[in-house]
Write a structure and sequence with these properties.
Shape: elongated
Distance between the termini: 117 Å
Number of helices: 1
Low-confidence stretches: none
Radius of gyration: 30 Å
Strand content: 25-35%
Helix content: 25-40%
Length: 203
C-alpha cells in the first residue's frame, strides 16, 4: 500500500514559479535594452560616417570648381555673389565647352547647389532653369560662415578675409568651412572640414 503522506512534493510551488519567471523577464529585458542600444549606436556611427563622406566629397568638389573659376560664357567676371553662406561663380564643371553658373546656398541644415548652363543665341544664363540639388546635409555651422574670401595678398601668416560686403573683383581665393553633425543628441562629436582654393585663371 502506498503511503501518500510520506510522498515528497517534487513540483514547484507558485512562489518558485513566480520568482523564476521574474528572473527570466529581467534577463530578457536587459538583453533587449543592450541590443537596442547597440543597434542604435551602430546606426549613429554609420550615419555619421556617411555624413563625413558626403562632406569630404563636396569639399573636394567645391575646391576643384573654384580653382577652375573663370569668366562666364557671356564675359561676366568669375564671381557674381560672395556672401557668408551663399556664393555664385562661373566655372567649367563638366566636359562640355560651356561655362556653368554655379550657385551654393544654405537652406536650413542643407547646403544646396544650383547649376545653370548658358543657352540661346546670343548666350544667356536663364536662372529660371537652375537645376538645384542637395550638396550636403546635416550642416551645423551655427554662426560660422561657410564661405570666406581672400585677395591676392593672402598668405598663411596673415589670414585676414575680405571685409563685407565683398567686392567680387578682389577675390583671388575662396575658403569653405563645413561643420556637420547628423544628430546632436547622439553624435559623439561634430565633423569639421575646412579648405581653401586659389583661382587659377585670375590675372
Amino acid at each position: 500500500m502506498i503511503n501518500w503522506k510520506n510522498q515528497k512534493n517534487s513540483g514547484m510551488t507558485l512562489l518558485e514559479v513566480t520568482v523564476a519567471i521574474s528572473i527570466f523577464l529581467l534577463i530578457l529585458f536587459s538583453l533587449t535594452a543592450i541590443m537596442t542600444t547597440s543597434f542604435r549606436t551602430q546606426g549613429i556611427i554609420w550615419e555619421q560616417l556617411g555624413t563625413q563622406s558626403e562632406g569630404r566629397r563636396v569639399e573636394q568638389q567645391f575646391v576643384n570648381e573654384i580653382r577652375r573659376a573663370t569668366n562666364s560664357s557671356v564675359g561676366a567676371y568669375p564671381f557674381e555673389l560672395a556672401l557668408d553662406n551663399e556664393i555664385i561663380f562661373y566655372s567649367n564643371i563638366d566636359t562640355d565647352l560651356g561655362i556653368e553658373r554655379v550657385h551654393y546656398f544654405l537652406t536650413s541644415t542643407t547646403l544646396m547647389k544650383g547649376i545653370v548652363d548658358p543657352t540661346g543665341d546670343p548666350l544667356t544664363y536663364n536662372t529660371s532653369t537652375e537645376v538645384v540639388s542637395a550638396a550636403v546635409h546635416s550642416m551645423a555651422n551655427g554662426g560660422v560662415p561657410i564661405f570666406s574670401y581672400y585677395d591676392g595678398d593672402y598668405s598663411y601668416m596673415s589670414t585676414s578675409t575680405l571685409p563685407a560686403p565683398v567686392d567680387v573683383t578682389d577675390i583671388d581665393m575662396v575658403g569653405i568651412n563645413l561643420t556637420l553633425e547628423r544628430d546632436p543628441n547622439y553624435s559623439p562629436t561634430a565633423f569639421h572640414i575646412e579648405s581653401k582654393a586659389k583661382v587659377r585663371n585670375n590675372k
